[in-house]
Design a protein that fits this description.
Radius of gyration: 17 Å
Structural class: alpha+beta
Number of helices: 9
Shape: globular
Order of helices and strands: HEEHHEEEHEEEEHHHHH
Number of domains: 1
CATH topology: BirA Bifunctional Protein, domain 2
Strand content: 15-25%
Number of strands: 9
CATH class: Alpha Beta
Length: about 230
């Protein structure tokens, strides 16, 4: 099952943004991840924890009620330049958070596209591209549940250099650790209200009109996802 379909289905819009908070625990794989390597698949199966996939790459994550998920679908000028688009969209997320809350460390980017405070990661991101269409997703940890994360998530088979082999409890942090008392609902509300304007601002002239000739490829991707779900 794919996790990004709700936004991908809105590909005819110049910009579509979804923000949500999981109401149960789920493991989400990057598009090329092997569940038997990246997570404790047998434990997930035994305990009824779904294992989903996203269209974009990146590592495997555990989502739960202490997280907030952001998905952005937009049309951009370049077919490639993913590093630049990661920087722009990550900066939009961080700008919204900084504009609303007071953190005890600056929110920045590290590795390929991680959202970090200092040397600790609070958010993972991924990107799917289909020519001029871009689908971005960020999973933000608000309340870091190390026991839950370690229960279902293995140490990644690939990791950014700045992780230096650190275990989950030494590598991850939550936004509630950076702004004590903050809640996932407050983060969700801030992003829901303010993110669209920041995305349009950072993209500027990079934002282009939807290309109707590219719609069939995106619709075909959605149909493949539906077929996989029915199997």
């Amino acid at each position: 099952m794919w996790i990004d379909d709700q936004i991908l289905e809105q590909h005819a819009k110049p910009l579509a943004i979804g923000t949500w908070r999981p109401d149960s625990t789920v493991v989400v794989l990057g598009s090329s991840n092997d569940p038997n390597i990246e997570c404790h698949a047998e434990r997930c199966s035994a305990e009824g924890v779904p294992i989903l996939k996203r269209y974009g790459g990146g590592g495997t994550v555990v989502l739960y009620s202490g997280c907030v998920i952001v998905t952005i679908g937009c049309w951009v000028a370049e077919h490639f330049q993913n590093d630049r688009y990661f920087r722009l969209l990550n900066s939009a997320v961080n700008h919204v958070l900084h504009a609303t809350f007071k953190f005890n460390a600056p929110l920045t980017q590290a590795g390929i596209s991680d959202l970090v405070a200092g040397e600790k990661k609070f958010g993972g991101t991924s990107m799917f591209r289909s020519r001029n269409y871009l689908l971005y997703q960020a999973s933000l940890i608000v309340n870091c549940d190390f026991e839950l994360i370690g229960k279902y998530l293995a140490h990644p088979s690939r990791e950014p250099e700045y992780r230096c082999g650190r275990k989950h409890s030494d590598f991850l942090t939550g936004l509630a650790d950076l702004a004590p008392g903050i809640t996932a609902d407050e983060i969700l509300g801030s992003l829901s209200c303010g993110l669209a304007g920041h995305v349009l601002s950072v993209l500027g002239r990079e934002s282009v009109a939807p290309a109707e000739d590219q719609f069939p490829a995106l619709q075909a991707r959605i149909e493949r996802s539906r077929l996989e779900l029915r199997k």
